[in-house]
Amino acid sequence: MPRIPLTWLAEHTGPLADVSALQVATDLSRIGLEEEALFGAQVTGPLVVGRVLELVKEPQKNGKTINWVRVDVGPEHNEELDDPADPQPGAERPSRGIICGAHNFVDGDLVVVSLPGTVLPGDFAIAARKTYGHTSDGMICSGQELGLGEDPSGEDGIIVLGRGHAEGLTGEPGDDAIALLGLADEVVEINVTPDRGYCFSMRGVAREYSHATGASFTDPAASVQIPQAPVGGTAVQLRDRAPLQGAEGCSRFVALEVHGVDPAAQTPRWMARRLTLAGMRPISLIVDVTNYVMLDLGQPLHAYDADEVVAPIVVRRAEPGEQLTTLDDVTRTLDPEDLLITDSDGGEGARLLGIAGVMGGESTEVSPRTSNIVLEAATFDPISVAHSARRHRLPSEASKRFERGVDPQLPQVAAHRAAQLIVEFGGGEIASSITDEGGAPTPAAPIALPLGDAERVVGIAYTPQQVRGSLEMIGCRVEEGSDGTLAVTPPSWRPDLTIREDLIEEIARLVGYETIPSLLPTAPGGRGLTRAQRARRAANRALAEAGLIEVTSYPFVGEGIFDALRYEAADARRDAVRLLNPLADDEPLMRSSLLQTLLPIARRNLGRGEESVAIFQLGTTALSRGEGSRAPVPAAARRPTDAELEEVLATLPLQTRSLAAVVGGSSGPDSWQGAVAPWGWADAFDLARRAAAAVGAQLEVRQCEHAPFHPGRAGELRVLAADGTSTVIGHAGELHPAVVTEFSVPARTSALELDLEALIAAAPAVVAASPVPTYPVAKEDFAFVVEQDVPAAAVEAAIVVGIGDLAENVHLFDVFTGEQIGEGKKSLAFAVRLRSVEGTLTAEQIGAARRRCIAAVETAVGGVLRA
């Protein structure tokens, strides 16, 4: 994200003395440059110029020598009287006493003093403090303490203003040093969309700011003096043997030499300050100038040590197996699609100078001994740069700009601007000739824009003056034909303008998005939630009321989850949908069961300190249609035919909404009454019945073996259809011990999962109202001995059939097996509630109902009433 110092912006737009960073951000946001962050002044409080009156060196016991300094900080800040407990030798006039450990200044020097109350970068507050036997009433500051970097003098110590080390800064004691050093700069950080790469420069942002506010705009590129130099200089050869998508990897390469630069020359403080505010670290004069010009104009530059480069410079694609050590000291194996900068004509001994548009190599980097340089300013293909930057995971300030498109008219301008700055501050001489291989691309054909199209697309009326004025404002050349159609040629710095809709978007943006009214459609009279929506909410609410917590998980899983859940090789849930571009390489599949993502959540929560788990989720699952089931992609030019749509739908994954829960550990907090019972397999079935009852359906449970459940403590959940048949819609029970161990959940953790869509479809659409009973209930208990494989649901159904309308409720409350019952047998005990809507039941009626019940169970399942 570009950072825009306001003082730098003001160079191109006129003074911004009364404009805050917030106002600038607001103005820029109106034209689509959104604010990312605001940075206020890094130094606040009384930071002033001081003159050293006297300096006394005091050796300490630790071997260190400190300076006890009397500093004149102006009449407004000097102390009138010395502290009697801290005598100040030689203090003949009001001043301040300060302890300082630096030794690069003497009596009479002008220095920068932060008085008590000053806050320096890093939220470092200055206060008077007792140290080394004195009261130090402030601090004499270095450049690093003020966020300015090292002293341009090259000395290690505080800033000295009075000996010419600060690029002509002057001042008198008491002067405001914040304004003198430019420390009051506010900075606006903006978010630039990929189609507006020209805003990665002060030039581009200043242009946009002038559009937003009407401020004057001075193009910094237009002020660069380009001498009429003969073409020659460093030999360059463009050899792109494998252009990407029909575009040359490098369409233009400008090389300009500068000789005799002083290697010891320092970056001027104002430039270093601007680079720091813009988020870049000052390094050396040559490197800083190339970065400064890039930030100002938008053209990335690279400087080579001319004494290390063997001409000619060759731009070519990499050979298989080639390696390059980049400036970050990492050796990278190159791809044949990487565009490289090399030297020595590509022959034996040729060196790789860098990855074009991304980063240079360390073999020819500028060093503290460099005095002769070659400046590179080129136009590289955005796609080639983007691929290389991502391939090597090497984003750089240069690649950010090349990826988004750089003005092809800038290379010569940027090269001369950088050369002039280097000569101005580092001496030397610019070569009399320049290399300009290739050339700027031919301007694209004008875009035809009928005057009425803007109104047709946006929906509001724009005058011809607004249409023409907006396009000319952004730099387009506009010519009007006899039929009212405009022929618009976009400027070189706007490669994103390719079709008429792009131009219309610019018109809407510059005239003002706020002029486009917000018209919300009138919503039709609502009919409330659909039946399915009500049912889903009811099922969720039922589990939440039972004490479970709803969670959400990503629907992506790895292939190892199937083995962790003990799926058999032929299990249909292994046919998961594989993603072509997964978010994570270790999770390339869509889940085919909610438990595949719910159990990892349980493990994570328990690993973070939870002692029990009771969670549920309503989400989608997907099953693949099988190999080769990729959906066709219809043409975008017309509506797909019904046959094409059917073909697309036939290949889509099988998706459904499922409801799953995991419960384990204690079912509640302990109390003075004792420990609470843990969650168990019976709770899983009860929760499934709760969800089904909330939807309006009833479940039938049958014992089964189904991964990932315990083979003896699990059952399938069935729902009865209108025709009397039952369909399996899910499973519940205790998890297999191996699964419990795999996911580190409490022993006997249980779970349930059911197809909620199938459950809702099986529930009656209309719920019949039950009359309120007015007669007393009669209670009877039955215990039937049946074969081990007879489901309890079958016995319950026989009881209901035998008793008839008098059966109000039937509930299984006990299952018993043992020697008393016999091998292969089990006892099922039911509590039955009998009630009549016609009157109080008599003993004869109750007895008759018991006999019918016993006979029905014996006939249906062979059950015998247990004595």
UniProtKB/TrEMBL annotation:
An example Gene Ontology molecular-function term: phenylalanine-tRNA ligase activity
InterPro entries linked to this entry: aa-tRNA-synth_II/BPL/LPL, B3/B4_tRNA-bd, DNA-bd_dom_put_sf, Fdx_antiC-bd, Fdx_antiC-bd_sf, NA-bd_OB-fold, Phe-tRNA-ligase_IIc_bsu, Phe-tRNA-ligase_IIc_bsu_bact
EC number(s) from the headed UniProt entry: 6.1.1.20
Enzyme class: ligase
Subcellular location: Cytoplasm
Subcellular location, principal: cytoplasm
Listed name of the protein: Phenylalanine--tRNA ligase beta subunit
Species of provenance: Brachybacterium vulturis
